[in-house]
Write a structure and sequence with these properties.
Blueprint lengths: L1 H20 L2 H20 L3 H5 L4 H24 L2 H8 L2 H12 L6 H18 L11 H21 L4 H23 L5 H27 L2 H4 L5 H14 L5 H29 L5
Length: 282
């Protein structure tokens, strides 16, 4: 899981660098084209069985939500610091917990509600609406987190009765088709560095996806989930070393609040799950 987050953080670095010297849509296209290639290569021996789905509408919806999350995040990375964008995006597990209570009927006690409120407060500390340092671009990763939470909730619904590779195929397919249709309007002749960055985005995205799949194959999602917060550390390091971005005190405080709240909610969920599964009287 840490390896997956490491490669995704490198992908974000390349996307930010490309967005500063070319068009962000080209970075998005490289991301999804790379993912489409690896998915096709892996599922080729059983492509017919993987492509078949009983939930075509839901598959398209979840894929569109993830595409929107990626679009918001990549545009956010091009306009604000890596650490700020990643910290705000880190509220998505909290939003998933909230959405599961609102739309899937999952239990939500006062402790987890407090954790959700704390995480949202941390996001506001990073974004700082109403202050002189506020920029509307800071809302882009928050929009990405909301879309990703929606994607995760739809995936929960689909995942109960669908092959994970089917979901992965449609995620890559929808993004690749939409961006392949859109990229000609934004295409700028790439120089050698831009072309290298596009290749790197695809390569790091593919590597991150493979490690993520492997992690979720070896362990439950709840076991590896906390390690996803290592992305905040990676983003802070890359931002400082590569882009000379020094996060201010408010960004660091907000990130700590978000991560702390997220880990607390994860802890409550992992404790509650065995209790719900235990037989009466145990």
């Amino acid at each position: 899981m840490i390896a997956a987050i490491f490669f995704f953080s490198l992908m974000d670095v390349a996307a930010k660098a490309l967005g500063q010297r070319s068009d962000t849509v080209m970075a998005l296209w490289a991301r999804y084209s790379g993912q489409m290639l690896i998915v096709i290569a892996i599922i080729a021996p059983r492509a017919r069985a993987v492509v078949a789905t009983r939930f075509l509408g839901l598959q398209i919806l979840r894929s569109a939500l993830l595409l929107m999350a990626t679009v918001f995040m990549f545009f956010g990375l091009a306009r604000i610091g890596l650490a700020e964008a990643t910290a705000v995006m880190a509220v998505n597990p909290i939003l998933i917990t909230l959405g599961a209570a609102l739309f899937l009927g999952e239990a939500l006690g006062w402790r987890r509600m407090a954790g959700i409120a704390a995480a949202l407060l941390g996001a506001m500390i990073v974004i700082r609406p109403g202050t002189e340092v506020f920029t509307p671009n800071a809302l882009l990763p928050l929009a990405a987190a909301i879309c990703f939470a929606g994607y995760a909730l739809v995936t929960r619904r689909v995942g109960r009765d669908e092959d994970p590779w089917t979901s992965l195929f449609y995620t890559a397919l929808v993004g690749a088709l939409v961006l392949s249709a859109a990229v000609p309007a934004f295409w700028q002749p790439p120089d050698a560095i831009t072309l290298a960055l596009m290749l790197v985005i695809g390569a790091f995205g593919m590597a991150g996806q493979l490690f993520l799949i492997r992690a979720l194959t070896l362990a439950d999602a709840s076991t590896v989930a906390p390690f996803a917060y290592s992305g905040v550390i990676f983003a802070t390091f890359w931002g400082l070393v590569i882009f000379a971005e020094r996060p201010d005190a408010a960004t660091i405080l907000g990130a700590l609040v978000i991560v702390g709240a997220g880990l607390y909610v994860w802890h409550r969920e992992t404790r509650a799950r065995p209790a719900r599964a235990a037989p009466r009287g145990a």
